[in-house]
Automatic annotation (TrEMBL):
<feature type="domain" description="Leucine-binding protein">
    <location>
        <begin position="34"/>
        <end position="396"/>
    </location>
</feature>
<dbReference type="Pfam" id="PF13458">
    <property type="entry name" value="Peripla_BP_6"/>
</dbReference>
<dbReference type="InterPro" id="IPR028082">
    <property type="entry name" value="Peripla_BP_I"/>
</dbReference>
<dbReference type="InterPro" id="IPR028081">
    <property type="entry name" value="Leu-bd"/>
</dbReference>
<protein>
    <submittedName>
        <fullName>ABC transporter substrate-binding protein</fullName>
    </submittedName>
</protein>
<comment type="similarity">
    <text>Belongs to the leucine-binding protein family.</text>
</comment>
<feature type="signal peptide">
    <location>
        <begin position="1"/>
        <end position="24"/>
    </location>
</feature>
<keyword id="KW-0732">Signal</keyword>
Amino acid sequence: MNRLKPIALTVALVAAHLATPALAQDKVQFFPSLTGRTGPVAPNATPFANGYADYMKLVNLRGGINGVKTLVEECETAYATDKGVECYERLKGKHGGATVFQPLSTGITFALTEKAPNDKVPLITSGYGRSDSADGGIFKWNFPLIGHYWVAGDTVLQHIAKKEGGWDKLKGKKIGVVYHDSPFGKELLPIMQERAAMHGFELLLLPVPAPGVEQKAIWLQVRQQRPDFVVMQTWGVMTPTAIKEAVATGYPREKMFGTWWSGAEPDLRDVGAAAKGYSAVMMQHGAEPQSTVVQDILSKVHGPGQGTGPKEEVGSVLYMRGVVGAMLAVEGVRAAQERFGKGKVMSGEQARWGYENLNLTQAKLDALGFKGVLRPVSTSCVDHMGSAWTRVHTWDGAKFTWASDWLQADEALIRPLVKNSAEKYAGEKKLTRRPPADCQS
């Protein structure tokens, strides 16, 4: 694929909204988009980018952010950390300055965490990145909004325990963890190890080198050791490869549970009926084809031929994740405008305040079209995540269907993990915790 095509496409479509004389002087809020339309995660990252772009178009059709239009420009990272950093450097100062970056990569997030404080540009890392960055007292510029990997790991284990009849039923069991051998994959391990120590189950750690197309040795271990369950922290081509190997080795899919980047349609589509019974924990939403926001995008964006990608993917799991990411980015700016000036373009620093003071009530979410999709999100100086709710869905051979009620991560367990890890990071980087006065500024 031509790397420039997505960039040109998105800029051209947004420019079309700005080209008429009446809109020529519109104020523009710039939202850079780091994409993975090429490389090992392309089937998964492309719908995300399309959903992100389409929601931003919908915002403009709804009148912008109190009249301020959104502008999206893409830069292709191919899921490579060095390319992600290059894209960040290229885009951070364009179009009046970047509002917020969403790296869509834990490796890129780790790198940008070092740069964002100096550049005063916030990072939204919903469901990935550094789990300890939920601690806003140390990570002023990072926002793992609506969930991080320790939420995923805790709630998938809650679901398994509930199916077995309680935590005590996991004692003496063996749980395999198939994970991407990278910061992304390893980020899941602390919560798994914490729960294993608490409840007396054994962990079988199974790291898979990227990109993950060769897993025969891993699944030979699974066949030999027969863990009672397998939890997968995989992404891109690694996920369908793992499921195909499980099929080949006869490991039951009903015993396999993915975290949220391991449970979307591209992961299962080619495996089809053979993957029936595979489950994954979801960061609140799943596929949401009937939601109001999806119907609005279909009628107002795709209807006139302004959609970014194929109409068929609208409402799918990863498309929705892009939509949710865009909504969070926009609503942080809207919150900032309430303090710094309605209808004004917000700087990255002002937008950061907005993300730290999000108060997305159910009524607000419903009005935006997310009824039945998301639960309330409320952040603060100390809590940069704002919500810890998940659900589990299961593949029925052709599509995902909900298989659990709402699950909430155990904050009493996770908060100390977050704080201890954040304090360790602060010690290594010689950072001090933000004083109370900084939370009011």
